[in-house]
Each structure stands twice: as C-alpha cells, then as structure tokens.
Amino acid sequence: MPEVVIVGGSLVGLSAALFLRTHGVDVLLAERHPGTSIHPRTPGYNARTMELFRAAGVEEAVRAAGPWKLNGTGLLWAETLTGPNHRWLAPPNTAAQPEDLSPCTDVVMSQDVLEPVLRAHAEALGAELRFGTELESFGNHADGVTATLLDRETGTRTTVEAAYLIAADGAGSGIRAALGIGRSGIGVLEHVVSIMVRADIRKELGDRSFAIAQVNNPGFTGMARVVGDKLALHVTYDPGEGVAQFTPDRCVELARAAAGLPDLDVEPLEVLPWANTAAVADAFSAGRVFLAGDAAHVMPPSGAYGANTGIQDAANLAWKLARVLRGQAGPGLLATYDAERRPVARLTMEQALATGRDWFGADLPAEVHAIELLDTAIVKFGYRYGAGEPYEDPRRPGCTPGSRAPHVWVEPGVSTVDLWAGGLVLLTGSEGTAWLEAATRLPLTARRVPDTKAFGITGSGAVLIRPDGFIAWRAETADARPGATLAAACEALLAGA
Question: CA 294, 299, 301, 306 torsion: positive or negative?
Fold first, then answer.
C-alpha cells in the first residue's frame, strides 16, 4: 500500500514523486494521459529549482537532457521566425546571477524534455507511476485517504488506500473543486490556445536560437517556440467562438505565417486551450489532501515562475510528509506547508504580473500597477518563511530562521546544498565541538564548515538547516546547555512551531 498518492503526472507531480522517494516514502502516481507532455511549455528552470534537483541527485541528468543554448537574452521579437526583422527584449528585472549565490545555474529547456528525466529517476527509485490512469473519486478521512482509480485503456477500477494525497492535477483541479477550496486573485487575463505542429524550420533558422519569440505580422500574432522539428504556437482567442475555429487547415496557415515560409510542410498535432490566469487557492490543504503546483496557484508565464514555484512546493511538502510518516514529527509540521507556501505563491504571482506589465506593457488591472517589481534573484532565492519580512536580498542574507541557507563551498566540489540534501544538518565552526557532540544524540548530521561568517555565527555558534535548504534555528555563539538547546530546536521544528 502506498503511503502517498499523487494525482497528476506533469512536472510537479513527477517532482513530488521523485522528492518523496529520495526520503524513502512509498508513492503511487496516477496521470490520466498515456505519457508525459508533448508540449514544450515552461522553458526556464531557475537555479533554486536546480538546487532541489541537485539534492535529489538528478541535476546532471537534467543538464544532459538537452538545454537550449541561446544566442540572445530574454524574449525574441520577430516579424517572422526566419525573417531578418528581429530584436531581443531583455526582461526588466534581471541582473547576472553572482557566481557565489548558488552552486547551480538556471537551465533553459522545454517541459517535454524534462518530464521524461524526472519520470525515469522517480521510477528508478521505486515510485509506482500509472500513466493512462484517472482519479474517479477520493475520500478524505481522519486516518487516511482512499482513491478510486480508472485504467483508461482497460476500464479496470482499483481502490487505493494511503495516508495522504497530493493534488497536482492542474489549474482546473477537480480535487480542489471537490474540497470546496476557492481561489483569490485577478483571475483570467486572457484565453490562449496552444497549437503543436510538426514543421522543421531548423535549416531556415540557421544559428538563431531562442526560448520563445513574440511574432507579429498580418497572418500571425502570438508567441512561438521551436523544439527540434516542431513548432509550438500560442495565440489568444475569444472563448465564445470556441477552439473549433482552429481546424487543421487553420493551424497550417498560422504555422506558415509565424515561420514566414508560405510553402512550409506542416503536420498539425494537437490543439490545447488554456487560460492565462492569476489566482492562488484560499487553502493549500484540507485534512489529508494537499494542493501543489497549478492546483494551488496559477500565474502568467512572464518570468517562468509557475512551474518553478510548483516544484518548490513539492520539495517543501515532501520532507515534511516523510518525517510525519516516520513518526519523527507531529501533524503540526504539515500545517506549515500552507503557512509557508501560500504567501510565497502570492508573492511570486504578483511578480509574474509585474514582470509582464514592465516587459510587454501588458494591459492589466489597475491594482497590478502598484506592485513593486523585484530583482529576479530575490524572487528565486530571497523569499522567506515565517514571521518578519516576506523576502530578503540573497546577496546580503540575514541568515535568520525562515530564510534560505546560503551556498558555501565546504570543500572542493561540495556545497552546503549537498549537505542538507541528506536531511537535517547542523553546521558549526572550529570551536563548535560541544554542538557536534550534542548532535550525535539527535536524528541529524553535523559537521564543521570553514566559513561560519556566511551564516551569521561565530566559530562557536551553530545553524540548523532543514532538508529543503532553509534555516530552522541558529545560535550565534556557544551555549551553556548545547544538548538541551539543540534538542528543543529540533522538537520545535518537527512540531511545526
């Protein structure tokens, strides 16, 4: 019997399965589609997300899967994809990431390339992934959950019992609706249809390489992405007219107009409608069910924050579920998932709106104009949990509980990221022998680091880092009762206090 059922096998569901298995949790994932996505959505995975993949042991595999090597920064504006009239539009809030901020860098690659990597590694770790399987109903009970699953090919139904359920079933989450959880935010900004066609324009593109382009000409206005021999086109439409207007012939016309090649050989593949929306669920959990990714929050694609936020949801939740399931923590720890991730989702959603406002001059509701646009380094690394300011500049970290632990090389090739990857970790300095001895009696690892100043402590102080890389507790100097103090800090963390 699985300990956790995950509904939804896209980026967030697969990440949740991967992270849970790295913590030893038995997982069953159900995804209604027969395989991973064919749509090259979400081209950017930021360095914070890559830290989480590094901790899960998949960073190198992700990088080897085929990131794009771009020959410009930002968004390509083009009259046609292959024509001479084009220029680069840089994001309004991006500065070069300092090399000492993280052991990882951003990766630009498409979702359809990343998902198979996550799937393969989750399965290799023992996750049970059932594609072509749909959730028909679920029960949310005091002592666990039940899920009735339908194999869409055979028609076979099975009922599965588990301790918890993660809803990663997308923006139109049926689980969220069944729980009666509403959403707050601006709502739908525009209706978009994504058109996938097979059309090889690599020869005509030459060395022009970009993640996404804004194309404007009489025959096509919208976004376009090139992935191998395929084109992904994104155009707005009137939902009153429906998606039936995007016939195969219409899709061929749009692809040729976007490419600027009137005789281009085009094979229509799929038409997928979606709504560009800004909304955050009013709760991220109900009983033993937790919302993650688009089921919990949706935001405009500006900044590529949506998938990254969802993957980071999964990492936050995974270690907490593992500790509770192993009897190392009480249910109060799970309550911190909503308390921590919902404010981050709202902050990130606002930044996506502000980025679109300043980047494209998007026509947005008046309240968006009051949002202060933050540097992307703050959005990626600077959000905080708990009391106090909601974010900080990670280039000048305060190192207080609730903030991300800074990256420090503790030895050649080994970052502090690699230390918390194994679970709770206590770091101390050259005079921290008493802390090291106290740590031997607790479920954590401990070690000395050469640079304690990076954590705002002296050589006799200590800092406790959670398995998702956030600081749980800190003592700036030595303590008269290190054993009792450290035990109390661990108890408070695992109780959700």
Answer: negative
283, 183 in Cβ contact below 8 A?
no
Query: What are the domain boundaries of the chain?
Result: 4-66+105-184+278-360, 186-277, 397-495
Please give the angle made by the CA atoms of 195, 197 and 200, to the nearest 5 degrees: 140
Q: How is domain 397-495 classified at the architecture level of CATH?
A: 3-Layer(aba) Sandwich (3.40)
**Among residues 177, 138, 130, which one has the least CA distance to residue 160?**
138
What class has domain 186-277?
alpha beta
pLDDT in tens, the chain (497 residues): 899 999 999 999 999 999 999 999 999 999 999 998 877 777 789 999 999 999 999 999 999 997 777 766 678 899 999 999 888 887 777 665 667 899 999 998 888 889 999 999 999 999 999 999 999 999 999 999 999 999 999 999 999 999 999 999 999 999 999 999 999 999 999 999 999 999 999 999 888 888 889 999 999 999 999 988 999 999 999 988 888 899 999 999 999 999 999 999 999 999 989 889 999 999 999 999 999 999 999 999 888 899 999 999 999 999 999 999 999 999 999 999 999 999 999 999 999 999 888 887 767 788 888 999 999 999 999 999 998 899 999 999 999 999 999 999 999 999 999 999 989 999 999 999 999 999 999 999 999 998 899 999 999 999 999 999 999 999 999 999 999 999 999 999 998 87
Q: pTM for the whole thing? A: 0.93
Please give the structure tokens belonging to residue 474.
């800190």
Q: What architecture is domain 4-66+105-184+278-360?
A: 3-Layer(bba) Sandwich (3.50)
